[in-house]
């Protein structure tokens, strides 16, 4: 929560309307950094230990829902970030930056979305097969490159992409020019997007290892009869596919 307060009540939150780089950096950190730090407290595990009865059943139903399953996919996070950051390349970014309502909504919605993306990875609330986790791992490497595109375009473009004028008439002398503001926005966004993908890859590797150990333990606990039956079923299904 301290990271949230630092972002929202510090420099980034104070100048989110006036400065493009404060606006984009604030959103990127609320999406990646704040949820990752909140997840270290294991809120799902804590909630399951504290809740009983109907609240616990409601929590488990929510964790088993399709929306958590989709957002718990490791590919969803980078794709969502790519779509969200691509908005900075359009006039929509200028409209959002100038709107007090949008500014307040961003401070609430973005961390929640980020938390829903991180928790399934950190607390294994979504069941995955080994093959699916391997596919996520490979796709996450591709997203590591794709995520950099919005930041690169912001940095290299010579036109003001959000078409927004000064939010305030009293512009302090230390404010960068609109173009330099956009370039700083691209630099910071590029850096944060690339750094944020590294923990996702680490979490995927940890989840893959845990899942592999769990499957190995389940196989070790099988009796000889159960193992023979499982082998025969596997051979039978393989023979049917060959036919």
Number of domains: 1
Tell me the span between the first and last alpha carbons: 59 Å
Task: Show unreliable segments.
Answer: none
The coarse silhouette is: elongated
Number of strand segments: 0
Helix residue percentage: over 70%
- Our estimate of the beta-strand percent is under 5%
Question: Quick one: biggest sheet?
Answer: none
The ordered string of helix (H) and strand (E) elements is: HHHHHHHHHHHHH
Structural class: mainly alpha
Search tags:
mainly alpha, single chain, 243 residues
Describe it.
The protein starts with a helix and ends with a helix. It has one domain (2-212). With 243 residues, the protein is mostly helical. The protein has helices at 2-9, 11-14, 20-39, 43-50, 53-63, 66-71, 76-86, 91-98, 100-123, 130-146, 148-156, 178-220, 224-242. The radius of gyration is 23 Å and the shape is elongated. Helices cover 77% and strands 0% of the residues. The chain has 13 helices and no strands. Helix 3 packs parallel to helix 9 and helix 11 packs antiparallel against helix 12 (178-220).
């Amino acid at each position: 929560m301290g990271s949230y307060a630092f972002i929202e009540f510090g420099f980034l939150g104070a100048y989110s309307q006036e400065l493009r780089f404060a606006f984009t950096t604030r959103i990127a950190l609320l999406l990646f950094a704040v949820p990752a730090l909140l997840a270290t407290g294991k809120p799902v595990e804590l909630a399951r230990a504290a809740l009983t009865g109907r609240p616990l059943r409601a929590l488990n139903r929510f964790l088993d829902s399709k929306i958590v399953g989709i957002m718990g996919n490791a590919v969803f996070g980078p794709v969502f970030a790519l779509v969200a950051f691509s908005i900075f390349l359009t006039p929509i970014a200028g409209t959002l930056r100038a709107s007090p309502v949008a500014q307040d909504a961003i401070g609430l919605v973005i961390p929640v979305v980020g938390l829903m993306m991180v928790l399934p990875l950190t607390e294994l609330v979504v069941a995955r097969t080994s093959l699916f986790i391997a596919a996520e791992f490979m796709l996450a490497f591709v997203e590591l490159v794709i995520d950099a595109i919005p930041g690169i375009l912001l940095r290299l473009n010579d036109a003001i992409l959000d078409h927004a004028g000064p939010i305030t008439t009293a512009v302090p002398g230390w404010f960068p020019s609109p173009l330099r503001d956009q370039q700083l926005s691209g630099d910071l966004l590029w850096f944060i997007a690339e750094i944020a993908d590294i923990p996702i890859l680490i979490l995927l590797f940890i989840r893959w290892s845990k899942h592999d150990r769990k499957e190995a333990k389940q196989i070790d606990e099988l009796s000889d009869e159960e193992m023979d039956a499982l082998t025969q079923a596997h051979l039978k299904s393989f023979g049917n596919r060959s036919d």
